[in-house]
Model the fold of this input.
Amino acid sequence: MTKTQGLRMPVDISMTILSIILMGGNYLFPLDIVHEILGVGLFVLWAVHVALNRRWYSALFRGKYNPYRVMQTVINCCILICTIFLMISGIMLSNHIFTFLDIQGGLGFARIAHLLASHWYYLFMSLHIGLHVGMIANKIKQKKEARGESSDEQIKSQDTVRKNIFRILLAISCAYGVYAIITRGVWKYLILQQQFFFFDLERGYILFALDYISIIILFATLSHILAAILKKNR
Done:
């Protein structure tokens, strides 16, 4: 069990990094085969992720459902659905790795499905991250309590200052996340107002990464706040 828990964090981090890179489409690489290789890598990590969390999936139809569990189940199942659509459409659009399948038709559908599924996947992935923020914070708190730091007044005062600074930075990041959604036109992809992916080369790759990281922070924060409310009311 300890080995499984030790694997989860590196797998989740790798999946998040790959997802951010893949959101740039083929514009980030001189060869489009790199996008395909990274896409296959993401699906392999997804298979590992599902295997590590197989107990959660096997318990889907057992036990009672409170509002928090409903929220968690909807987010996780939506991610899984988006992943399946990404995998199918990615195979259909492949120009290198899966050409041996010789898929001829349905390319128009596959292109739109890939664009739509990738952005909804990114949104639900961000919400999913927010569900685990509380768990990570609790672990850090438990470690501090085990070291006896929670009883030290000076450390408590320093923690309060750090928390306030963190909250200010978080608020700024979330506000920038809203700006990034608008300027990158993410909302247009989510409702198919724009059916072709556009990468603003003038803004560069660093700003692209910052924009999409801020979008993760925005939706993860919203998910964390809603989860905390649902747990408290429960």
